[in-house]
Amino acid sequence: MGIFSFFTKEKKANLDQGLAKTKESVFSKIGRAIAGKSTVDDDVLDELEEILITSDVGVDTTLRIIDRIQARIKRDKYLNTAELHKILKEEIVDLLIENEGEELKDFDSPLNSKPYVIMVVGVNGVGKTTTIGKLAYQFQKHGKKVYLGAADTFRAAAIEQLEIWGERTGAPVIRQKMGADPASVVFDTLKSAVANDADIVLIDTAGRLHNKVGLMNELSKIKNVMQKVVPDAPHEVLLVLDASTGQNAFEQAKQFTKATEVNALAITKLDGTAKGGVVLGISDQFQVPVKYIGLGEGIDHLQVFNRKEFVDSLFGDQMS
Predict the structure, then answer these.
(1) H-type helices in the chain, by residue range?
(2) What is the percentage of the chain residues whose pLDDT exceeds 70?
């Protein structure tokens, strides 16, 4: 009980610290916008709309949030500014629940296949390989046997970085020489993982957002080769996005969701940006669940995304 309580508090502290810049630079503006107001009128809603849009929540998602608040005002007939904080949190959480369905509880959640194959995609520089390393650490900490596949064969640095993470976490890394066929690396990785009774396989892919057809063909080839070894693989196509790029992250999400069947998101570098609102907008607009968030450089600074905890931390005590 005591140990569990400690880790829960540590997780919350990491979340609060990771979202501090967004909370301070953007969402604290909401408090100033309603200062001296007794009711939520059109002026307050206009200011709220501007604040959400400029925090990279996105226009469409912002309008949906505003519409939901207006519906609450109409239903309840009267809404004062003290209630706005609570209602805003409730409506954002409800919006995320509607879009994302069942939520991952923790890194030790049961898997529906063995090995469970995760193909990780995203452009260079978003923290893709680092996210793979942190996932390997978390999964292994929870008793799962993890294999890593270095299928980003276009950059020697990517292979070397993955090997460093393999050494740090104790996860075997299957690799070939730079320039090798990525699909061949994936085939070797899955054969080895199956032979050694691995629970999870994490596949690093090339971080290039070249023309959509080329990207689609490359990822399709990798998936076809996977299925020769594990028929229903990949079980998860995890798109890694950098929160600090704001609207550019939306564009990357658009391109990758067109190129392949992305069914999970990891959003990184939330600790270094005031653009944490991008998590809300991307999860809403693309109807793909955010599964993981990166809150710092530490090996344990990757968390399973919890909608309510995220919104509570983002708005903070002054909005409770």
Answers:
(1) 2-18, 20-22, 28-33, 42-54, 59-76, 81-100, 128-141, 156-169, 182-195, 212-229, 247-259, 278-285, 307-315
(2) 91
User: Within a 13 Å sphere around the CA of 281, how many CA atoms are in the beta-carbon half?
Assistant: 25
Pairing of strands 146-150, 173-174: parallel
**Element at 238 (helix H, strand E):** strand 236-242
CB atoms within 10 A of CB 32: 10
Q: How many Å from the N-terminal Cα to the C-terminal Cα in the chain?
A: 27
**Average pLDDT score over residue span 230-253:** 92
Query: 33 and 66 in contact (C-beta within 8 Å)?
Result: no
Mean pLDDT of 289-300: 89
Q: Can you tell me the distance from the alpha carbon of 124 to that of 153, in angstroms, rounded to the nearest whole number?
A: 13
The DSSP code sequence of 105-163 is: --TTPPPSSSSEEEEEE--TTSSHHHHHHHHHHHHHHTT--EEEEE--TT-HHHHHHHH
Beta bridge partners, 303, equal 293
pLDDT band at residue 140, thresholds of 50, 70 and 90?
A: very high
Q: With contact defined as beta carbons under 8 Å apart, do 116 and 197 qualify?
A: no
Q: How far apart are CA 315 and CA 293, in angstroms?
A: 17
pLDDT reported for residue 210: 55
Where is pLDDT greater, at 180 or 215? 180
Q: Quick check: bond before 115 cis, omega within 30?
A: yes
User: Tokens in use for 165?
Assistant: 């993470």
Instruction: Report the interhelical angle of 278-285 vs 59-76 (nearest 10°).
Output: 90
Global pTM reads: 0.89
